[in-house]
Amino acid sequence: MFGINGGELIVILVVAVIVIGPTRLPGYAEQLARLTKQARHFLADARQRVDEELGDEVKDIDWASLDPRRYDPRRIVRDALLDPEPTPAGARTAAAAATAGTAAHATRAAPATTPLPPGAPAPFDDEAT
Length: 129
What we know:
Elements: H1 6-20, H2 25-54, H3 73-82, H4 89-100, H5 103-106
């Protein structure tokens, strides 16, 4: 709470009691209690309004998983490398069309798969963007 530990809080309360005095302290305590109740009511009302306006989709979100303190880039990379990627439906149909051997695909040259010798310049593709 604001970086204040228990000992510091006690010192602040003792100084407040001495400065305010025993005669005005009950009045200030009542004001603090009333302010706390109003703040709780305001927060509850704001939370209810946000839930009503955003709908049921927001209630299903796991907010703890979105906490930036739980962000671990090593875990994210490890999970991305270990999980197999699902094959999209469009990739499957493109692969099936490529294996069908249409005339348009047959005239195209296959890309070179042999490695270049050391020190050789990379091939230039004038059609690349």
